[in-house]
Structures are given as structure tokens and as C-alpha cells.
Amino acid sequence: MSDNLNPANPILIVDDEYGILLAMETTLKMAGLNNTITCQDSRNVADILSEHKVGVVLLDLNMPHIQGEKILTIINHEFPEIPVIVVTGAIDVETAVRCMKEGAFDYVLKPVEEGRLITALVRALSFGELKQENRALKQHILTDKLESPETFKEIITQNKKMTSLFLYIESIAQTSQAVLITGETGVGKELFAKTIHDLSGLKGNFVAVNMAGLDDTVFSDTLFGHTKGAFTGADRMRQGLIEKAAGGTLFLDEIGDLSISSQVKLLRLLQEGEFLPLGQDEARKTNARIIAATHEDLFALEREGKFRKDLIFRLRTHHIQIPPLRERLDDLDLLVDNLLSDAAKELNKKVPTPPRELITLLRTYSFPGNIRELQSIVFDAVSRHKSRILSLDAFKNHIAGEQENKSITAMPNPETHSNITFAGDLPTIKQATHFLVVEAVKQSRGNQSIAAEILGISQQALSKRLKNKGLQDSIQKADKDPGISSC
Q1: How far apart are CA 168 and CA 255, in angstroms?
Q2: How many CB atoms lie within 10 A of CB 365?
Q3: What does the alpha-carbon distance between residue 345 and residue 392 come to, in Å, rounded to a whole number?
Q4: How do strand 36-39 and strand 274-275 relate by DSSP bridges?
Q5: Which residues of 169-299 form beta strands (DSSP E)?
Q6: Buried residues in 392-414 as b, exposed as e (16+ CB within 10 A)
Q7: Is the separation of the CB atoms in 24 and 48 below 8 Å?
Q8: What integer is the mean pLDDT of 325-346?
Q9: Which of 114, 265, 128, 250 is nearest to 193 (CA)?
Q10: Which residues have a Cβ under 8 Å from the Cβ of 39 and sit 6 or more positions away?
Q11: Treating both helix axes as pointing N-terminal to C-terminal, what angle do 448-455 and 393-409 enclose, rounded to 10 degrees?
Q12: Which residues contact 310 (CB under 8 A, 6 or more apart)?
């Protein structure tokens, strides 16, 4: 049996006439729905539903042994999560109404019109997945416990926001709907996408492609491939990444960089499950799941006319917003320990001992590059490491350099802009300095060396200021009440 089955859970076709079973199965396969089970004896339906995780049932009403309406009642009571589409030749309004009241999802008349049947099936499959997601999400909310914690082992965290995301991911992982992952550069969007794929149960590959810098032709060729002779130099057929991801997941990173014309093609792929290789007129079907990621605000791009609103809604059927590192500083200890081990292993060194002040220093930094930036700093520090205790110099130099670059690039024009506003009278230079010193000592948790680094002054200059009794009183007050803001 092929691994590239669509849909993931089979469609059960129940009819006592073999010719109708064969015709319906063929119709579905031609529409790309190749995962089917046929049943000619209505007495076997309950056993099939018990043995297989069926996605939708196509049910004939008029059958020997057990009538379709009786089977519908059984399914509705014992397998309420499975949508049932009634298929019958009887044009009877009362029967239709009765079936709908009994829980039928839809009603299709024989002879079956292909378009009507496929539309009903697609809607039923989506509805079934939605019910499954809601049930899983409700279960996760009630238990607040991960079913597969080992799948998340690559994402180092103890943060509650991140744990909540894990619970949500487990709830949606096994559906076929698109997922949009957003977050700043360096937060680990591809790692999250890979985790969703691992949880999905899909047997196909996880295929990742970066959309940044791809024009429309390169986008089409990369994703959809081309036929021989499609353009000058196309001396042989090339399979696109969408086909390599068949039965699996296609991860589209930096989706915000797509051109409008490429967005139209992606929208068709999401809506119809179809694509056109370059040089081919006949559309091909795909069952690959789409996960997209971006650090951009897609709605802001839409307001600028750079991104289609309908594509946004198609992409974000499920949405995961990964918090930046500055909002999960409680993970710093775990992250640093793991990154030190990884760097030491790669550099063939012993794992160095981090100084006690390291986490305090890192907590004062905003990490615009997030996990990726922290990884880079730690690797640089370990590569320079020589003694038993890891030096803080690499960390201090990086932070000082980034803060200096930020101050140069973000220096406001005093005539047109000010980053700081005051509700009342302006503080004096002495008062402003007082506030800054208190806040720096608070952020550094009393470490004068780090506080001096934050302020951009020498430790001796800070020590001199700290001898002021009024300043000491303000610092003690801030220590007693962490909720008090010094500025």
C-alpha cells in the first residue's frame, strides 16, 4: 500500500451494489482521494469502524440486512466524531430531514454528481478534523499534560508560555490544515515546524524551503518542478519540492517575502490541493501538509498591498506565535547549560563552568537575535575558553557592541523625536542619574560590575555614586518591593 494516502484517515463507502462501490471509489481516486475502504455488506460496518480510524462514511440508505438509517443511528451514538454523508436514490424530503436530525452531515442523491460529492466530502473531512482538534484541545486544557513530551525534547524550555504552545501543538498536529508560525528571527520556527511534523504521524518527508529572494519563476520551479523543454535549458523533467513532500510536510519559511503572483499559486495549492509544474497544462494533486513561517506582520503587509488577505486566512487556520527570548528569561539557565555542552562537544573541549554572574548579565540584554544569537555568543565564548571557569569577556563584549550599534542607529533627532516623555516637570540631571543607577543595580541584581556595564561607566565611577545615602535608600526600597519601578 502506498504511504501517500489522501486523506490520512480512510473514507468508508457502504453500498450493497458492487458496481456503485467501484464507480464511487474510482471517482474519489480521480479526485485525489485514494484512501478508501469499500463495504458491500452492511453487517460489517461496525467492525470496520472499530478496526480503522475512519474519516468519513458514505452511506447508502436502502440495503438488505441492516438499513442505512439504522447504521446512521449506530454511528451517531458509538462513533459521533465520524461525519456521515447519506447517499441514496430516494428523492424523499421526509427521509432527508429525518437523516439530518439523526446526525447525518450531508445528503447526496443518486446518480451522484461528481462535483457535489467531492465538495461534500471535503467539507465533511474538514468538519471531522475540527471536531477532533476541539476534542483534543479540550482534553489538553483539562489535563494540562503533554501526551508525547519526548517529541519536544529539542526545544529547551521550562517556560509556561512555551508549555501552553506545546499543548496546542499536540491538539492540532494530526490535522491536515495549514499552520502559520510567527515570531522574531532566531526563535526556532523551523524547529517548531519539524516538531509538528513528527507529531502528525505523516509518513512522508519533512521538506523545508526558504522563500526569501525567490522570484515567481524560481518559486514555481522550486515548488512545482518543470517538464522537459518547459524553458531554455530544461533538458529533463524536474520534480518539485511539493512532490518530494507527498504524504508529509512542506515547510515554507519567510513566507512574507513572496511576490503577489507567487501568492496566487500558493493560494490555489491550499484551496484546491492542486499545482501546475512549469510547461504542463494538466494540474496535479498533492496531499502534503503546508506549514508556513515568517517574522513579518502579514496583516501590516496586507495593508501595504504586499500580501493577500485571503492567503493569510488560509495559512493561519492554526497559528503559533513563538515568544522572543526576552519574554522567557526563566529559560536562560537551561539554554546556557545545553548550549555550553553542545559547543564543547563540537569543539572537542571539556564543558566549562559558567561564572555565577553569567545569567545575571544575560538577563540585562534584550537578545534581538533570540536563541540563535545566544547560541552564537556561547559558541564564541567556548571557542576562546582556556581556564576552568568560563570568561565573561565574550558575553560583555558582544552585549556592549550591540548596545553601541543600537545607540548609533537609533539615536533620535532631538528636534523631531524623543524616545522619552515625561508627564510632569523634567527631572534634573542629578535626579535622572539617580533613577538610572537604581534601575541598573536592580536589573543586575546588585552586581556592580554588570550595573556599570549597563550604564556605560567604570565600576569605580559607579562605586563612587553608590556611596550616596539617598541612592542606597532607593536601592533598598526597590529590593524590598520588586514591583516598584525606579524610573
Answers
A1: 22
A2: 22
A3: 20
A4: unpaired
A5: 179-182, 206-210, 225-226, 238-239, 249-253, 274-275, 284-285, 289-294
A6: bebbeebbeebbeeeeeeeeeee
A7: no
A8: 95
A9: 250
A10: 12, 13, 14, 15, 21, 45, 48
A11: 20
A12: 267
* Tens-digit pLDDT profile for residues 351-374: 999 998 899 999 989 999 999 999
The band of 475, judged by pLDDT with boundaries at 50, 70 and 90, is: low
Residue 210, SS3 per DSSP: strand
**Which H or E run includes 48?**
helix 45-51
Burial (0-12, 13-18, 19+ Cβ within 10 Å), 428: exposed
More confident: 461 or 14: 14
Cα four-point dihedral sign 141, 144, 149, 152: positive
Q: Does 8 or 244 have the greater pLDDT score? A: 244
Residue 325: how many other CB atoms lie within 10 Å:
26
The 10s digit of each residue's pLDDT in 293-325 is 999 999 999 999 999 999 999 999 899 999 999
CA pseudo-torsion sign 400, 404, 410, 415: positive
- Considering only residues 486 and 19, tell me which one the structure prediction assigns the higher pLDDT: 19
What pLDDT, on a 0 to 100 scale, did the predictor assign at position 72?
93
- pTM for the model stands at 0.70
What is the biggest distance separating any 2 CA atoms in the chain, rounded to whole angstroms? Answer: 97
Judge whether 270 and 176 are in contact, CB under 8 Å.
no
The one-letter code for the residue type at 465 is R
129 grid coordinates: 478534523
* Whether pLDDT at 469 is above 70: no
Q: CA-to-CA distance for 402 and 419, rounded, in angstroms? A: 19
Residues 409-420 have pLDDT tens digits of: 555 555 544 555
Tell me which residue has cell 500558493.
266
Task: List, for residues 210-239, the tens digit of each pLDDT value.
Answer: 999 899 999 999 999 999 888 888 888 889
Nearest to 298 by CA among 285, 279, 278, 312: 312
